[in-house]
Amino acid sequence: MAQADATLPQPVLPAPSAVLELFKPVTWFPPMWAFMCGVVSSGVPFAAHWHLLFGGMVLAGPLICATSQAVNDWFDRHVDAINEPNRPIPSGRIPGRWGLWIAIVWTALSLAFSTLFGVWVLWAAMLGIFLAWAYSAPPLRLKQSGWLGPAAVAVSYEGITWFTGAAVMTRALPDWRIIFLAVCYSIGAHGIMTLNDFKAVEGDTRTGIRSLPVELGVENAALVACAMMAVPQIVVVVRLLAWSRPIHAAIVGLFVLAQFILMARLLRDPKKYAPWYNATGTSLFVFGMLVSAFAVRPLVGG
């Protein structure tokens, strides 16, 4: 696509539609889903707590996740100007340094809003915001590492938001079983994040991003991703059995078995089938999250 004509008047302020595009609402679903798992696992009845539920979802999606997207697009603006010039910042629809100011303001707004839900939610929000900046911004720029980048995203999208969902409802440090599940599914999400890197192997190689497919090769990275997804779920099944939740353990176990079948196809051609697996196997992964949340609900709520 051709660059905008420099002789035409350039916008001084970003249009609301451009800001919304910068925030990428489609990316809000994973953390909001994990937040809901945290809410369910807390054992707190939904009745009379809808304001906490709604407020927490706003914090997880339109605030903290949106902040991470704004930060990422600002620090990737030079690469996007080459690869995706139609994005809001390189296209000029968010002019000047407005992309940076939006990221800073949304960071402050997210932290201020998190104080409404207690100290544990504030600490979780601070960690999530730190990881959002550390992932994209120098000097850390964790996204350049195939291990640390996916870990930062996985912990933010799954673990921290699961923890936040429970902490919002209980106004306290969540039960250790809730934290255990959040940690397990964060580790599993690392594999999901690795699958997203298969589509950009050539570009990552040219720009020096050391994703796992670049570092290990596509086939080996796919094996690592599958192991990262499967092992934590197996651990969850074992723990659910130990907690006397056999029906929930059986359901999650069936989801894992189905993923093994789908992984066999994924491993035949990881680059080709990674998007397909994200639509199938990853869906089973996130449904297992919710089943696990319902499993511990009566244990921590009773």
Give a short overview.
The chain has helices at about 15-25, 30-40, 50-75, 75-85, 100-115, 120-135, 150-170, 175-195, 200-205, 210-215, 220-240, 245-270, 270-300. By secondary structure, the chain is an all-alpha fold.
Contiguous uncertain segments of 5+ residues: 1-7
The largest sheet is: none
User: Quick one: CATH superfamily of the largest domain?
Assistant: UbiA prenyltransferase
Radius of gyration: 20 Å
Please explain how this structure is put together.
There is one protein chain. By secondary structure, the chain is mainly alpha-helical. It has two domains: 14-173, Tetracycline Repressor, domain 2 (Orthogonal Bundle); 175-302, Four Helix Bundle (Hemerythrin (Met), subunit A) (Up-down Bundle), CATH 1.20.120. Helix content is 74%, strand content 0%. The protein has helices at residues 16-23, 29-41, 50-75, 77-83, 98-114, 119-136, 148-170, 176-195, 201-207, 212-216, 218-242, 246-268, 270-301. Mean pLDDT is 92; it is low at 1-7.
Quick tags:
302 residues, mainly alpha, Tetracycline Repressor, domain 2, Four Helix Bundle (Hemerythrin (Met), subunit A), 2 domains, 13 helices, 0% strand, disordered N terminus
SSE layout and pairing:
Blueprint: H1 16-23, H2 29-41, H3 50-75, H4 77-83, H5 98-114, H6 119-136, H7 148-170, H8 176-195, H9 201-207, H10 212-216, H11 218-242, H12 246-268, H13 270-301
